[in-house]
Write a structure and sequence with these properties.
Length: 438
């Protein structure tokens, strides 16, 4: 899941067309989301202006009656419930009140990008009066910040399929989530929600905890702690200064402590008519650092994420084969289909985010020399035709003279690798590609 490029999944006008759309690789990874407080009045504009200046487009809401449009101008003088989402991208303090169909109390307008195509407004853009009674007043604005290269993690663990459905405020200052690693990897970051503009915190990672216990840290070993301060309300990914290494199948817990103020927690749960969640015991907890007590949150769950990066398995590293064959390894779900995918890697060993949340791990490829500056960027394309996977790469490195085979195994440490020629019939969860020399 995630934000999909419009070019890869064009807007559809029928429900049946949406239902047949395949899972596609997200175009962006978002590790930070800033909440911009709703305006309290028509002159309360400085916070929203600062957010646009510092971050860019801000997602917000508005109540829209088309009868109040006038060319590129919009102003609704009465109060209605917001029913439309737009992106606010700028403002004009001197935009004249006379340009609106109904004249507001003064000048000034927000510049928005609407979603009704280039034939609406001026090439899809509108000016909305500062005095509009619904614009950015009912709901907080949202800014999505794409991940940087160092934040582009291999995988994310979390139970909140629908994200923040609601909130819980109590005296518990601890949140915890328990996961089991799917392969050799390291915990590199933790994703948390904050309801304050500034929040001191402490995070911890415990390894080898008891799965299904009444406490998220039962039987575990404290592997790492880190203190810091969050600088905005919303969602933040906290990078760990020292990642915690995990062996394949390790049950681990991430713990987040809110320091100061009454704690508040983002929760995911079923909401009739909107979403149905099925959270199980032993997944997420709320606890108190004062008493040491923990409360299992099922059937609800705490919104708490762990971000990981793959680690090279010892038996699959470079130079393990006599003929110099290199490995390109892909991690996926059982019987899942690979869709067309492009990914980039820099250097000899790097993680690549693949289709549907899969991971490609590239340790070495025959003919690819990371010490050669001309080879410091390598692109791999994966495609499927009639359930048969195919590979290509750029630069081609003599692709026309290369042969490769795709192998699959049910476990990463298993030596029973079988050639994969049909993705629908294989039971493999892990894949690797052997590439012949030139």
């Amino acid at each position: 899941g995630g934000a999909i490029a419009e070019t890869n999944d064009a807007y559809k006008t029928s429900a049946s067309a949406w239902s047949t759309s395949p899972m596609l690789n997200p175009a962006f990874h978002v590790q930070n989301i800033v909440w911009v407080p709703a305006r309290t009045s028509s002159t309360d504009n400085d916070t929203l202006k600062a957010a646009i200046t510092n971050y860019g487009a801000v997602a917000t809401s508005i109540g829209w009656y088309k009868t109040y449009e006038q060319g590129e101008s919009y102003y609704y003088p009465s109060g209605i419930t917001p029913d439309h989402a737009v992106a606010v991208i700028g403002w004009d303090d001197d935009y004249e009140a006379s340009k609106f169909k109904s004249t507001p109390k003064g000048n000034g307008a927000w510049l928005i990008k609407n979603s009704w195509g280039e034939d609406s407004g001026t090439n899809g853009y509108y000016f909305v009066s500062y005095y509009d009674n619904t614009f950015a007043k009912t709901e907080d604005g949202i800014v999505f910040i794409p991940a940087t290269a160092e934040e582009n993690y291999t995988a994310v663990y979390g139970y909140d399929k629908f994200g923040r459905v609601g909130d819980c405020a109590d005296n518990n200052d601890l949140e915890a989530a328990v996961f089991t690693s799917a392969w050799n990897e390291e915990v590199a970051a933790i994703g948390v929600y904050s309801f304050l503009e500034s929040q001191d915190y402490s995070v911890a990672v415990y390894t080898n905890v008891m799965k299904g216990a009444d406490s998220p840290i039962r039987g575990g070993t404290l592997a790492y702690t880190q203190d810091g301060s969050l600088t905005h309300a919303g969602y933040t990914t906290i990078r760990l200064a020292k990642p915690v290494k995990l062996a394949d199948g390790t049950t681990f817990a991430v713990v987040y402590r809110q320091k100061g103020g009454r704690p508040q927690h983002a929760m995911d749960y079923s909401e009739e008519g909107y979403c149905t969640s099925n959270h199980h015991a032993g997944e997420t907890f709320l606890g108190s650092s004062n008493t040491g007590n923990w409360n299992d949150m099922s059937p609800k769950c705490v919104c708490l994420m762990a971000y990981t990066r793959s680690i090279v398995p010892a038996n699959d590293g470079p130079g393990e084969t006599d003929d110099g064959t290199s490995m390109l390894e892909t991690l996926s779900s059982t019987n899942a289909t690979l869709y067309a995918e492009t990914a980039e890697t820099f250097g000899a060993s790097a993680n690549i985010v693949g289709a549907n949340g899969r991971t490609l791990w590239s340790s070495w490829l025959a003919g690819f020399d990371p010490s050669d500056k001309d080879d410091n960027k390598f692109i791999v394309d994966i495609s499927v035709t009639n359930n048969v996977p195919y590979l290509s790469w750029t630069p081609n490195l003599g692709s026309e003279n290369r042969k490769y085979q795709i192998w699959g195994s049910e476990t990463l440490g298993d030596d029973d690798w079988q050639e994969v020629t049909d993705l629908k019939t294989t039971d493999a969860k892990f894949f690797k590609v052997t590439v012949d020399q030139k």
